[in-house]
Write a structure and sequence with these properties.
alpha/beta; Rossmann fold; about 375 residues; 12 helices
Length: about 375
């Protein structure tokens, strides 16, 4: 298939591009490279050294013999989006190209406005390009489990059957997003659903949990192909952040009591899910929603597991620090989300193992000199 990876320079996009290329798909990358600018803005950098996108792609060509064209530009510019679609004629678009951090969206008004304009307008431009240029193209859009919030009932996959005053209907599952970032994803979902209904577009919305891990078969081939991994309070996610903190002697930063329960998956399963969705696309006019995760943990559970593994395997006595929670969220709550559709398509999950935690801590120890301890604490406040 011809698969366009929007956001192909990012944490999920880069390994996805390599994986699909290795599997024989014709892959192209679209990226504005703005994620690298955010590192400069925040005074941080990836724990692992990451080469320029041009150097990454050149090394992949040498390593695999596969060509991966690059389009540098902003999805908010429709003329650019139109040119990419006309030249590449994608059969599937994997859309990772959005500002993906809840804390970043909550820094201040400017960051909230940027997040929503960037995400919603870029996604709308992709929808129009599919409609006008490649109407059979399948949109595979990265959503988030954070769209749902933490309701006191089971979270279904996108839709829920409702009985009300003697009548019944299947409706989109109610959304209670956590941040202006998560709200942008809700807006995307509504726009995609409308486009599918009105224009006959085919789309799969992947409501992804928190991604952990770093290595895939392709990214570990050479340091020039390494993926990024973040440890700061804005872009660093729970398990990855805890492992890096343990390796560098920093307390594990748990927000509040740590009873918040979230859905998680290994980055290798992100790659699986994307390809499964691409090879078994939605029908014309269908808006599918898959909950893309494999396990559920509380934040405290993850911190305690990292603490145990760090002690048993490295002799590191990691402290767990409970910080005042900068977020407005329930810290103890019911959480049970359905996630069967990707399993039905053939997903073979990589469940969280002590060995993966060991590998993350070991990687962090190798690159600990790249850590800026000043950016670990949360800096954005929801209140």
């Amino acid at each position: 298939m011809r698969i366009l990876i929007a956001g192909g320079d990012g944490f999920c996009g880069w390994p996805t591009a390599l994986h699909l290329s290795k599997r024989g798909h014709e892959v192209a990358i679209v990226d504005s490279l703005i994620r690298r600018q955010w590192d400069e803005e925040l005074g941080t950098q990836s724990l692992t050294p990451i080469a320029s996108l041009e150097d990454r792609v050149a090394l992949w060509r040498e390593t695999s013999g596969k060509e991966v064209p690059i389009y540098i530009g902003d999805l908010q510019e429709y003329a650019f989006v139109e040119r990419v679609f006309r030249e590449f004629q994608p059969e599937a678009v994997v859309h990772f190209a959005e500002q993906r951090s809840a804390p970043y969206s909550m820094i201040d008004r400017e960051h909230a406005v940027f997040t929503q304009v960037n995400n919603v307008v870029g996604n709308l431009n992709v929808l129009y390009a599919i409609k006008d240029i490649t109407p059979d193209c399948h949109l595979i859009k990265l959503g988030t489990m954070g769209e749902y919030g933490t309701p006191n009932i089971d979270i279904e996959e996108g839709y829920i059957r409702i009985q009300h005053k003697g009548r019944e209907d299947v409706l989109p599952y109610p959304k209670q997003p956590f941040s202006f970032y998560h709200l942008s994803k809700v807006h995307d979902s509504h726009n995609i659903m409308f486009a599918c209904k009105s224009w006959g577009i085919r789309a799969t919305d992947l409501n992804q949990g928190v991604v952990y891990g770093l290595w895939t078969d392709e990214t570990r081939l050479s340091e020039g192909l390494y993926n990024r991994i973040d440890y700061d309070g804005v872009f660093g996610t729970a398990l990855n952040r805890f492992c890096i903190q343990a390796a560098t002697g920093h307390p594990l930063t748990v927000y509040g009591k740590g009873g918040q329960t979230r859905a998680f998956l290994d980055i290798r399963d992100t790659l699986q899910c994307i390809e499964l969705a691409a090879l078994q696309p939605a029908e014309r006019g269908e808006f599918r929603v898959f909950n893309q995760f494999t396990e559920q943990f509380s934040i405290q559970e993850l911190a305690e597991r990292v603490q145990r593994v760090a002690a048993e395997r490295f002799g590191i006595q990691a402290e767990i620090a409970h910080l005042n929670n900068p977020r407005v969220e329930k810290e103890e709550h019911y959480y049970h989300a359905v996630h069967t559709k990707l399993l039905d398509l053939g997903l073979q999950p990589h469940l969280l193992s002590d060995e993966l935690i060991v590998e993350l801590i070991d990687t962090a120890m190798r690159y600990r000199d790249r850590v800026n301890f000043d950016v670990i604490a949360p800096s954005a406040n929801w209140r």
